[in-house]
Amino acid sequence: MLLAELREKYEDNEPIYLEDAMKVLGVTSSYCRILMSKWVKNNQLKRFERGVYYFPKASKLFGEAAFDTQKVIKDKYLGTKEKPLGYYADFTLANMVGITTQVPAKTIIVTNNERGERRREVKIGNQKLLISRPKKLINKDNVMALMLLDLVSVANKYSELSRKETIEIVKRFAVNAKVTWRQIKDNIDAYPTRVSQELIKMEIYDVLA
User: Fold this and answer.
1) pLDDT tens-digit profile of 81-125?
2) Which end of the chain has less Cβ packing within 10 Å, N or C?
3) Tally of CB atoms within 10 A around 170
4) From CA 91, how far away is CA 132, in angstroms rounded?
5) Whole-number pLDDT of residue 117
6) Arithmetic mean of pLDDT over the chain
């Protein structure tokens, strides 16, 4: 009966977090763990990692479809467009925008869901992440501005392109992200003086909304 309630709520390969399952089933944390363990043992449910479960999706060609690790990463550390929790940063961000072709061995994420002073390695499925807390609490209004400031701070360090090409890519990011002068003004105090100077040298202010 309880499993049917959970099945009605979640689709195949959709992450089921223990704290959410407790609410759906209306049971305590300890009892929910007992239920989940029983269903996993009976092959009615799959355990992805501690506190994360899912109903496996069958594949006609390959038996069982692969679980979407990225969905868990997004839920835990990135959030949504309306309620962002974090963003890709540093070497990962540099690769994403195209100023370097090198792919980092560990995905780097800045997130509100990290409170430690230092960058920490975590593993989601078979993917290694380096997570750290943001310089300022991330919200809908400042997330793109913080990404731009992070990109400016590491552009010279990671870019494989000419100075002119690098600046053009950073400017294009600022335009596409619709970062405003006010957003930069409200967040620049969290960054070293060199980042503020680099914004001027790159003429980023000229393209801000």
Assistant:
1) 999 999 999 999 999 999 999 999 999 999 999 998 899 999 999
2) N
3) 23
4) 13
5) 84
6) 94
Token pair recorded at residue 19 = 């704290």
pLDDT at res. 58: 75
Q: Which two tokens stand for residue 163?
A: 């100075």
Q: Which domain range does residue 54 map to?
A: 2-61
Range 16-19 contact pairs with CB under 8 angstroms and sequence separation of 24 or more: 16/45, 16/52, 16/53, 16/54, 16/55, 17/51, 17/52, 17/75, 18/51, 18/52, 18/53, 19/51
Asked if residue 99 and residue 50 are part of one domain, the reply reads no
pLDDT tens-digit readout, 32-64 = 999 999 999 999 999 999 999 999 987 655 556
Amino acid at 89: A
Which helix (H) or strand (E) segment holds residue 64: the answer is strand 63-64
pLDDT band at 68 (very low <50, low <70, confident <90, very high): confident
Domains: count for the chain: 2
> How many residues are present in the chain?
209
Concatenated DSSP letters of 178-204: T--HHHHHHHGGGS-HHHHHHHHHTTG
- Looking at the structure, tell me whether residues 111 and 49 fall in a common domain: no
The radius of gyration of the chain's CA atoms, rounded to the nearest angstrom, is 21
